[in-house]
Amino acid sequence: MKIRRYTFSARLSILVLVIYGIAAAGCKKAKKEEAQPEPEPKVTVTPQSSRAELSADSMFLYAKEVYLWNDLLPTYEVFNPRQYVNSDEEAGLNNELFAITRYAKNSYEYNRSYPNETKYSYIFDTDDANPVSYTLPAKSSVDLEGNGYDFGFYVGLFGTKTSYEVRVLSVYKGSPAEKAGIKRGDVFTSINGTQVTANYTSSVEEFINAALFDASTITLKVLKNTGISSDVVLSRTSYKSNPIYRDSVYTSGIKKIGYLAFARFSTLTNAQPVLDAAFNKFAVAGVTDLIVDFRYNGGGYVSTAQYLADLIAPATINDRVMYREYFNSTLQNGKASILKNQIFLVNGQPQDENGKLLTYADLDYSVNGNTYKFAKKGSLNNVQKIVFLVSGNTASASELVINSLKPHIADIKLIGEQTYGKPVGFFPVTIDKYEVYFSMFQSKNSEDQGEYFNGIEPSYPLEEITGANDNKYDFGDLSEKLLASAYSYLINGTYTGVVKKSSVKSSSGSSISGTKMESFSPAREEFKGMIEDRKKTK
């Protein structure tokens, strides 16, 4: 049983330069320049070649030059991309991308939870774009420019097939749900008059999907942690959201602790004002320790991740290496000439230099050109201890912040569950109406650490939900399990909460750890990625 992905956001293509005959020729030229021993691909492009065939060719030809593990890919003739052409064009391209990623080093692209899907690389159909925005794909309700077009909540199912809860994990700022008073920890006991608490079946799954993700209005019976229920009617609308769920300051004696629950690394335009305000609040209060809640943060823009790290870091580490990005040797050596067919876009806008329209072939992919150093932002300058709250949904740019700070701040702890494990990033390659996000670079910190492909292990493993009373509290409430443990560590030097393991059956029949139903996993619905869009010309 598989829950369907949903997407409400993406930038629309401004201009598509990939003309398939040109793309193939560009790849041939790159082969010649690299003087590689393997023969040039024998790509046959004729007036009779179908759109799907040409798209399949382009998918592979781009991978041969930009994929992080391109040196492990076979020849065009051996791979035979046209074998993946399908009457459902997107399904065919996804099958081809999946086949490409099977060649990744050490099976890094293998997704243990969903073995028939890629872990990192993916395809986005721009026809599914958020109608209110032009931005990079987010695979979530709120895109990476802060535009929402939904009801505004992020839910998960917890329990077993016979007894479960539809529980709110977060509520997006400015959304219809927030305006209606829905909060993290609320439980939906009925949807559109149908009880959703027991006997979970495939038809119930379809009903919940349609109601939560496809409908324009919804009626919910909402159970609060106070035990009070009420009926709430929501209408899907467009709204502007910021990425901070909550920021708070706690005082214990002379100690001041700052708490930041951060939803996504949206564009700096969207994130910087609220981050500046939060950290100014921390500085004025005299905060010395931080709790950063990344539990549902799957990543976003690398530039925003770097900005947050600069807000946290002390000025004493200015000019030290924060992290480096490592592209494949073809890109590092400037031999990926196929990228001449891709316009370089920032926030959906074409860029130029000295009157020349830039393409992705004009950028610098060398290690030196992609080494980033600390440059202090804001006035919070005395952070001594940091606790990150993490889960399997903590990915990419979130992991980058944690990994980059570790060599420079002595007392960093992680509480929660092992993170997703995505030390790789990308930029979009446009093929017809699709944007393809190949794994393109790996990030490493100043100590050359960045091999967390299986995730970063927490200092103190603690499951978010193991009992009926867990996850009943909103962000920032010190009664909330993981936050309480982080607070205890910073005040007393000891953790609270006992890791409890249980084994229940998901609707697919497989044994899972904890109580979260695998059949309806919220981890599937949030964007997981690390997007690089900065202008670094040669």
Record keyword descriptors for this entry:
single chain, 538 residues, alpha+beta, 6-stranded antiparallel sheet, 6-stranded mixed sheet, 22% helix, disordered N terminus
Fold and architecture overview:
The chain is globular and about 70 Å long. Mean pLDDT is 85; it is low at 1-37, 133-140 and 500-524. The chain has helices at 20-34, 51-66, 76-79, 89-101, 176-179, 202-214, 268-285, 302-312, 329-332, 397-405, 481-492, and strands at residues 122-125, 147-150, 153-159, 164-171, 187-191, 194-195, 217-223, 229-235, 237-240, 244-252, 255-262, 289-293, 299-301, 321-327, 345-346, 349-350, 352-353, 356-357, 371-373, 385-390, 411-416, 424-425, 429-431, 434-437, 441-445, 460-461, 503-505, 511-513, 529-531. It contains eleven helices and 29 strands.
Shape: globular
Number of helices: 11
Give a count of the beta strands, DSSP E runs of length 2 or more.
Answer: 29
| Low-pLDDT segments | 1-37, 133-140, 500-524
Radius of gyration: 24 Å
Percent helix, as a range, is: 10-25%
- Mean pLDDT equals 85
